[in-house]
Amino acid sequence: MKKIRLSRQLKVDLTGYAFILPNIIGVCLFTLFPMIFSLIISFTNWDYTKGIGNWDFIGLKNFVDMWQDGWFTSSLFNTIIFAVGVVPVTVFLALVLAVIIDKYCVARLPMRLALFMPYISNIVAVAIVWVMMYSPWGPFTQMVKLFGVENPPQWLGDTTWALPALMLMTVWSGVGYANMIYTSALQGLPQDVYEAADIDGAGEIQKFFKLTIPFLSPTTFFLIITTFITSFQVFAPIQIMTRGGPGTATNVLVYYIYTSAFTFYKMGYASAMSWILFLILFGITMFQWAGQKKWVSY
């Protein structure tokens, strides 16, 4: 029997493909196939408790009906408010803290670790701690009482304050990650430019706005995109702390997708909303990518 001889380059290629094959299989099984399947069932009225195949194709009905759904529109509005409030505060606060710690703090490493700990902590534990902090006996309520407010808000039980309360917790838990990214970027800034600015008599505030912010614009661009995506996908704090309440005050889009699929068993409708979420995030990312040419300098 004649042996098949493989060239050395082909052996190298096959070895490389063998190494990445498990990852390719994982991506196909857990990312590509679910995306295609969700796109298919978004055109159906599938109730997953009835099994695969027991569905009726209804065309674009799910995509049309959701805009007449008050829960969907309110959840989308809450998601936009949440993201618009969280993203700029998180990014700006992280930048300021990174510069202050890098320039003026003695114990830099402990400070950075303290800021980073909330990000790597278990979100369930973090959420429960913040629920207790927002309780009538918690520090937020007691602090408000110290300022003479006799009837402070119930925070998570108040339709006006519930979403801002969740936004505050999200900023607190996410600023550490952004701070670490900015800290890494600060180490690579050209010091000769800052020395020239010192010779020219530039102050710290001038150097921050004229040098540091422009130099860090690629890092800022990256953080804005990733933080926007994360904010639009917020779920765990809502599920643990408010369950979308009171009323629909904290009912965000991902939480409504979850309840539509696993509480109301409307898997097709939930898939359609998921694709709308994907298109929104894709559009925001492309808009930012197009606009970054005007303010990001590499």
UniProtKB/TrEMBL annotation:
Q: Where, per UniProt, does this protein localize?
A: Cell membrane
ABC transmembrane type-1 domain residues are 76-288
Q: Which PROSITE patterns match?
A: ABC_TM1 (PS50928)
TM segment ranges: 20-41, 76-101, 113-133, 161-182, 215-236, 248-265, 272-290
Q: Single Gene Ontology BP term?
A: transmembrane transport
Q: Name one GO cellular component term.
A: plasma membrane
Q: Which domain of life is it from?
A: Bacteria
Q: What keywords is this UniProt entry annotated with?
A: Cell membrane, Membrane, Sugar transport, Transmembrane, Transmembrane helix, Transport
* Chief location category: membrane
Q: Cross-referenced InterPro entries, in alphabetical order?
A: ABC_transporter_permease (IPR051393), MalF_N (IPR035277), MetI-like (IPR000515), MetI-like_sf (IPR035906)
Q: Does the keyword Cell membrane apply?
A: yes
Bilayer topology: Multi-pass membrane protein
Name the CDD domains for this protein: TM_PBP2
* Aminoacyl-tRNA synthetase among keywords: no
Which family, according to UniProt?
Answer: Belongs to the binding-protein-dependent transport system permease family.
**Full protein name:** Multiple sugar transport system permease protein
Q: Which organism is it from?
A: [Clostridium] celerecrescens 18A
Q: What is the lineage of its organism?
A: Bacteria, Bacillati, Bacillota, Clostridia, Lachnospirales
